[in-house]
Amino acid sequence: MSGIEFVNVKKRFGSDAASPWVVDDVSFQIPQGTLATFLGPSGCGKTTTLRMIAGLEFPNHGQIWMGGRDVSRTGASQRSVSMMFQSYALFPHMTVIENVMYGLRMSGVPKDQAASSARKTLEQVGLKAMDDRWPTQLSGGQQQRVALARALVLEPEVLLFDEPLSNLDARLRRDMREEIREIQKRLGLTVAYVTHDQAEAMAVSDWVIVMNQGRIAQQGVPRDLYERPNSHFVAHFMGEAMTVKAQVQGDGHQVQLSDLQWRSPRKLTPGPVDLAIRPEAWQIVTTGMGIASRVIKVTFMGHAHEVALDSPLGRLWLVLAASDLPPQPGQNVGLALKETGVVALPRET
Fold first, then answer.
1. Cα separation, 205 vs 37, whole angstroms
2. Per-residue model confidence as pLDDT tens digits over 52-71
3. Which residue, 56, 58, 49, is CA-closest to 23?
4. 288-309 pLDDT per residue, tens
5. Residues 6+ apart with CB under 8 A from 177
6. Cβ neighbours, 10 Å, residue 98
7. How many CA atoms lie within 13 A of 278 on its CB side?
8. Rounded distance, CA 173 to CA 200, Å?
9. DSSP E strand stretches across 188-329
């Protein structure tokens, strides 16, 4: 289905051929009605990619397709796109309803019709009866909803978000990401969403595109990226992981690391590998079994206990459910691995 497609897109700033590529040979597809998130560290090219979707920047090479047409050289005003910025960019001298209907009025929609559409959209985002308030009279979450309503009222084919929740506290971030997701699904919107927060990306996305140094490191559904990263970068960026050296033996299922032999559920190629291990993959076993370790610190996190240990592999962290009885600092324990939460990667030199 028509949506957004990048074909071998490259972008640099400036005319100097020696300038680095900010976006370097990027290709992806976002089908209509899909929420896709661009995830990566600062400077990886994700915001530049979003600005090219919006028509605020143009590629030096490659093609951008939207709704089945080539928009590589089409400006923002000729694209059915709305963008919600990190700062919200509300007009302080306009009321809530004036902010929301501004884009419609600039498009020539009559005032009464624009006001009616704005009120319906404000109701969609939970701001009914707040028409006459000023932005300074609103909380951060309410301002975010006004900015969302202003983008939605234009009924765009594509809605863009650039770090939309970064200014909110943790509880409000969770509430608003659920609200964005619910509205996106209900209206069937095609959404491109930029964040550096992997938990946020996992929570809202149908599809995640992980970027690093202007290129796509890996793309896929959130669970696949978490459970089957294809590189050390993706393994560490999509959640916490520690990397240890190991040796695949015998039939390809037996893996030796330190004093522990772990059985891989997938057949691996015999030889040296690196194991990316999530904190939830470790389990405590009877002393004298597994990897001999010593508990350094236990931190209660509310939903879980975080346990730091010294081991022959170095400092390790594991996570126990809040209902589990944690070990005590100074206690000697054994460590084993579960089948899940462990990924074998090519050995890094």
1. 6
2. 999 999 999 999 999 889 99
3. 49
4. 888 999 999 999 988 899 999 9
5. 165, 200, 203, 204
6. 17
7. 18
8. 9
9. 190-195, 207-212, 215-220, 242-249, 254-257, 260-263, 271-277, 282-285, 291-300, 304-311, 314-321
